[in-house]
Amino acid sequence: MAVYALTGFSLVSLLSFGYLSWDWMKPSLVADVATDPMEKSLPPTFTRPPHIIFILTDDQGYHDVGYHGSDIQTPTLDRLAAEGVKLENYYIQPICTPSRSQLITGRYQIHTGLQHSIIRPRQPNCLPLDQVTLPQKLQEAGYSTHMVGKWHLGFYKKECLPTRRGFDTFLGSLTGNVDYYTYDNCDGPGVCGYDLHEGEDVAWDQSGKYSTFLYAQRVSKILASHSPREPIFIYVAFQAVHTPLQSPKEYIYRYRSMGNVARRKYAAMVTCMDEAVKNITWALKKYGYYDNSVIVFSTDNGGQTFSGGSNWPLRGRKGTYWEGGVRGIGFVHSPLIKRKRRTSWALVHITDWYPTLVSLARGNLSNVQGLDGYDVWPAISEGKESPRTEILHNIDPLYNHAKYGSLEDGFGIWNTAVQASIRVGEWKLLTGDPGYSDWIPPQTLTNFPGSWWNLERLTDGPRKSVWLFNITADPYERYDLSEQRPDVVRSLLMRLVHYNRTAIPVRYPAENPRAHPDFNGGAWGPWAGEEDGEEWEGGRESLKSRNKKKKKCKICKLRSFFRKLNTRLMSNRI
């Protein structure tokens, strides 16, 4: 039987955090603006395909937005969401590459071969080249397409780069984790390189500029140079708020009363990102795009709780299939929405943006087969019922198998040792090892996570490999009903069997030494030629064993320290 324990906090105290008081209407520090970007707009007209701005944040926790009761100030996101449609039954994937691949292709991971882990910098792997991407479909519909920010969909060949996958321009990083100022990234001891690219070239001249500032300013420049009479798609994939926890000191100062240092830095990064969104919105208005625009905001996965993030009151964290890993912050803001200022409980998944946005752009989906996403614009704009009734969170055959799972426990039709999760209607099923399962309150203590007494823990039976929850009635996954409802378990296992029959082989090749930045002038970038074929299913190394190898890179950190010190001195940031 499950045993719960909560000490040190009361539910009321944890949910009663107030807002800090500072004036969000002051001119932004991200760009020089003197007018309020939120002034009321003219009545909308939908006579032309709309301009589409898709904003994706990295590792922002479910709790870490003002309108979810956070102690972090996000006035811009709160305002945009309040005036648009909040998506409170919105799902993403638990880690970076899977969410991005499903957004760009409209397909589940099992249908692109990316169902295991992320694409690592030294792997000869990328988003399958036979996939027609979202920006490519928008180009077909007459859109100018631009990407700013984090790619993380592979780059071992030039054919994998954003500018070869549908984007007219690109400014950002190719890997998954870079310094916010120096853009250095280390993928192990001594394996360090620079990662900021302009198009297909290394953007050495941009080093020293804080990425959140840089990306927001680039969006403004794109809008200033384009005509609002021509449709435009801008994919803004902020690096924020992924580690390393770095922010300009003026933002950290606002949260000086926070005792937990990681939470303080993290909060500063979220607020800085919020101001960047404010300036993007201001630019849409200034240059004449706003009245015919659709702004979509989404997180990419749950927050990393030991790096300042919070998914409270949801269970779990980034990298898990509990709700804290897969339920995202999402909203749509647009003058074109018919029923504004409301909260939608329509079931929406990140794969749905592909058909939804292509349809909004009046593009052609008739020649695209096998999409897992649905057009959910009627559900968002008009409040109609969502066409989606189920979500395959994932099936990962390579993840460490649960010790006590078996085919017998899966009624002879499914090996419950395999990590998998599915949502059908109000029911959610998990098998195998779903990942870290605690409920973690916001990190308000100075010594968190050094002390564990402020966690709420669930102790499951030692031989557990199947969980069933009624997510509608129990969104915090506190009451496992797998033993009471074996009929539902069997039904959802049959759905997993169905999906597994459609899965393609896992694409997870071994790392290639040719990828070392030293062979590429000190920067991360393509290393394989056109003659190198696509590589499939390399080493079956477990995630845990690989993580043990990824130790801190002392050489990279030393080089990064001196470069960062020099650039900050030059820019008066210290």
Plain-language structure description:
- This protein has helices at 11-14, 75-83, 96-105, 134-140, 211-225, 249-254, 261-286, 323-326, 353-360, 377-382, 486-501, 543-549, 554-570; strands at residues 3-5, 51-57, 85-87, 90-91, 144-150, 169-173, 184-186, 192-194, 197-198, 201-202, 232-237, 293-299, 330-333, 342-344, 348-349, 390-396, 419-424, 427-431, 457-459, 466-470.
- It has 574 residues and is an alpha/beta fold.
- The protein folds into 2 domains: 51-388, Alkaline Phosphatase, subunit A, CATH 3.40.720; 408-502, 2-Layer Sandwich (Arylsulfatase, C-terminal domain), CATH 3.30.1120.
- The strands form 5 sheets. Strands 10-9-6-5-11-2-12-13-3-14 form a 10-stranded mixed beta sheet, with helices on both faces. The chain has a 4-stranded antiparallel beta sheet with strand order 16-17-18-20, with helices on one face. A two-stranded antiparallel ribbon has the order 1-19.
- The N and C termini lie far apart (54 Å).
- Residues 1-45, 448-453 and 536-574 have low confidence and may be disordered.
Would you report the number of β strands? 20
Number of helices in the DSSP assignment: 13
Question: What is the fold named in CATH at topology level of the largest domain?
Answer: Alkaline Phosphatase, subunit A
The helix/strand class is alpha/beta
Major sheet size, sense and barrel closure: 10 strands, mixed
**CATH class of the largest domain, anyone?**
Alpha Beta
Number of domains: 2
| CATH architecture title of the largest domain | 3-Layer(aba) Sandwich
Instruction: Please state the overall shape, judged from the principal axes of the Cα atoms.
Output: globular
- The residue-averaged pLDDT reads 87
User: In whole angstroms, how far apart are the ends?
Assistant: 54 Å
Name the CATH superfamily classification of the largest domain.
Answer: Alkaline Phosphatase, subunit A
Domain Sulfatase N-terminal: 50-361
Protein name: ARSI Arylsulfatase
Organism: Urocynchramus pylzowi
GO molecular function, one term: metal ion binding
